Amino acid sequence: MGACICKQKSGNRRLNITSTVPPSMENSFAEGRIRVPNSRESILILETLKQIRLLVDNEQEPPRSILMLHKIADKESGWLSVMMALISSVPADDPLGPAVISLLIDECALPTKATIEKLCNRLKLNRLIVNKDPDKHRNICIALGCLAEKMAGPNSIHLLNNHVLNYLIECLNINNYPSVILFALIALEKFAQTSENKANIIKYLESLSNGHGAPIEKLESFVNQNKYMERQVRFCANWSLDNLFPVENRPYSYEKVNTNGINVMLNANDVSEYLKISSDGLEARCDASSFESVRCTFNVNSGCWYYEVTVVTSGVMQIGWATKQSKFLNYEGYGIGDDEYSISYDGCRQLIWYRAVAENHLQPAWRPGDVLGLLLDVDNQRVVFSLNGVQLSPCKKLFSSATSGFFAAASFMSFQQCIFNFGSTPFKYPPPNCHFQNFNDFGVLSIDEKTILPRKIKLAMLKEVDIKEDSCTICFDRKADTILLPCRHTGFCSECGKKLSICPICRGDIEERELLHSPER
Amino acid sequence: MAGGLPRRIIKETQRLMAEPVPGIKAVPDEGNARYFHVIVEGPAESPFEGGTFKLELFLPEEYPMSAPKVRFMTKIYHPNIDKLGRICLDILKDKWSPALQIRTVLLSIQALLSAPNPDDPLENDVAEQWKVNEAQAIATAKQWTKMYATRG
């Protein structure tokens, strides 16, 4: 379950924030990570980071620290101090840090134009030296990206003034810290959701290229000692060039990728909206604030099957098995493991998820490079998870509701990424003493099915679709051939007619549905 | 979202592009055809006149069997819209019908700007003000429109 803290049920909740530190929190930062909190806001933010791991029930009240931060951010001066505290106090090594910045900004009251201006002034972006204090710059970039996303439209244009644009592009310098490069890239991507910004960014990038390759192109081959950090930078550079900032004469990734030997992929047609899938269909990443999910292209009904996932980031992902009935409720924060048709492993919070209920497991928290093994034994009704070859005891509960049609599937919180291996390359930790098969030996994909198009191209193709005028007004898939009785309203097909209990036009109860005879031609 | 984009959504998008609604702009996101960037002009003779209000509209997986999710992104002083931009409007909740469309929803929201309904409030403080001192409430709404919803 993704942390969803939008459950404020009434607008008149009153919080008392008279004391600076609630008594229960006084010792909460005794572990002393990186920075000593120096304000009420910082203390609350560190408390939120701790609490968010324990927030495993979406119906549960959000932690008090979050509610207090919201309350503080209701006033302009409070909003500014929450922003400044987020930037200075979220530690770089907390796997949930970036996601918490995104969650908090997303849920705070909307800032005014004047407030945004004040924030920019306080940050002094025009005078910052970007290659010092990488943690702070990383947080600034995350915060800018979240604000851009939250305020898409005129306010986002206002925020992306010359200083901010200059700053973000300077952050992309290949010699900079990879975490700063990564989040500057993501921030630019979020600014580009507003078309005027996008045009400005492209213009700026073009003015820089001078035949030496634009800054983002250089990042496509970015190499760094931190293998998994550089992988994220390359992934995002690749994505933004394919989807947002096209460069002349650069072929799209789907045109270059070699998918020979890959017979099972993540399904680009069976995915929630914001998940990014690589052109080889085996790597996925989420940079949205929602909880994004995907299933693979292949499913099984019997036998014993295994796949592996290499973790690129160490935050919240729920990786496991699901059937077609599992729902992807990205905005509500539900994904794989959050219904009775799926089960998942969460290596960040160290949980196994089933029916949106979490159970602790004893594996250590996962780290970039760790390999999650997922064994599904349909015949013996068991699922076995392993981390770097160390197996957990089998889980049986998935089979009480789901019996067939199992897909590999996963959900991602903000800024998470991992690589799937369905068997197209050798497994690192094949389960011992067990005869299993792999998806890739049995899957079949046509060339078209293997082609993962940039969404822009896909969308442009959709606009060309021709839809007949006599179609059902609800689905537009089938012919409108049904009359609802007694009201006699028409315009619906029999399939949609069956799903209705009251007439969509007059709201009258439906007693009968009759097929219309086709009109004579 | 199984099997790509439903034809119903494609059809509505095509129509919104071909025959836009006066005073309303709704453009699908380039990356996500279920997400629309919406601009609604404040209706004439309302306290929101002269303002342009940015909204987001999202079509959930069950659409059109369930209602679109709509939210104001621009701050607005209105008894039926809270500070997070959430809208209290019956057709977005229990009065939803699959015969309604994106365009009818946006027209209803525009109508809600013309006729605030403090008896069915979402933002209690604002509704209270609207009932106790309507002139003052309208003045505040005008002021907010100028502060938050005017370009430049």
Automatic annotation (TrEMBL), chain A:
<dbReference type="InterPro" id="IPR011989">
    <property type="entry name" value="ARM-like"/>
</dbReference>
<dbReference type="GO" id="GO:0004842">
    <property type="term" value="F:ubiquitin-protein transferase activity"/>
</dbReference>
<dbReference type="InterPro" id="IPR035774">
    <property type="entry name" value="SPRY_RSPRY1"/>
</dbReference>
<keyword id="KW-0479">Metal-binding</keyword>
<feature type="domain" description="B30.2/SPRY">
    <location>
        <begin position="244"/>
        <end position="427"/>
    </location>
</feature>
<keyword id="KW-0862">Zinc</keyword>
<dbReference type="InterPro" id="IPR001841">
    <property type="entry name" value="Znf_RING"/>
</dbReference>
<protein>
    <submittedName>
        <fullName>DgyrCDS10547</fullName>
    </submittedName>
</protein>
<feature type="domain" description="RING-type">
    <location>
        <begin position="472"/>
        <end position="507"/>
    </location>
</feature>
<dbReference type="InterPro" id="IPR013320">
    <property type="entry name" value="ConA-like_dom_sf"/>
</dbReference>
<dbReference type="InterPro" id="IPR001870">
    <property type="entry name" value="B30.2/SPRY"/>
</dbReference>
<dbReference type="Pfam" id="PF00622">
    <property type="entry name" value="SPRY"/>
</dbReference>
<dbReference type="Pfam" id="PF13920">
    <property type="entry name" value="zf-C3HC4_3"/>
</dbReference>
<keyword id="KW-0863">Zinc-finger</keyword>
<dbReference type="InterPro" id="IPR003877">
    <property type="entry name" value="SPRY_dom"/>
</dbReference>
<dbReference type="InterPro" id="IPR016024">
    <property type="entry name" value="ARM-type_fold"/>
</dbReference>
<dbReference type="GO" id="GO:0051603">
    <property type="term" value="P:proteolysis involved in protein catabolic process"/>
</dbReference>
<dbReference type="GO" id="GO:0005737">
    <property type="term" value="C:cytoplasm"/>
</dbReference>
<dbReference type="GO" id="GO:0008270">
    <property type="term" value="F:zinc ion binding"/>
</dbReference>
<dbReference type="InterPro" id="IPR043136">
    <property type="entry name" value="B30.2/SPRY_sf"/>
</dbReference>
<dbReference type="InterPro" id="IPR013083">
    <property type="entry name" value="Znf_RING/FYVE/PHD"/>
</dbReference>
<dbReference type="InterPro" id="IPR045129">
    <property type="entry name" value="RNF123/RKP/RSPRY1"/>
</dbReference>
UniProtKB/TrEMBL annotation, chain B:
<comment type="similarity">
    <text>Belongs to the ubiquitin-conjugating enzyme family.</text>
</comment>
<keyword id="KW-0833">Ubl conjugation pathway</keyword>
<dbReference type="GO" id="GO:0016567">
    <property type="term" value="P:protein ubiquitination"/>
</dbReference>
<feature type="domain" description="UBC core">
    <location>
        <begin position="4"/>
        <end position="150"/>
    </location>
</feature>
<keyword id="KW-0067">ATP-binding</keyword>
<dbReference type="GO" id="GO:0005524">
    <property type="term" value="F:ATP binding"/>
</dbReference>
<dbReference type="GO" id="GO:0016740">
    <property type="term" value="F:transferase activity"/>
</dbReference>
<dbReference type="InterPro" id="IPR023313">
    <property type="entry name" value="UBQ-conjugating_AS"/>
</dbReference>
<dbReference type="Pfam" id="PF00179">
    <property type="entry name" value="UQ_con"/>
</dbReference>
<dbReference type="InterPro" id="IPR016135">
    <property type="entry name" value="UBQ-conjugating_enzyme/RWD"/>
</dbReference>
<protein>
    <submittedName>
        <fullName>DgyrCDS13208</fullName>
    </submittedName>
</protein>
<dbReference type="InterPro" id="IPR000608">
    <property type="entry name" value="UBC"/>
</dbReference>
<feature type="active site" description="Glycyl thioester intermediate">
    <location>
        <position position="88"/>
    </location>
</feature>
<keyword id="KW-0808">Transferase</keyword>
<keyword id="KW-0547">Nucleotide-binding</keyword>
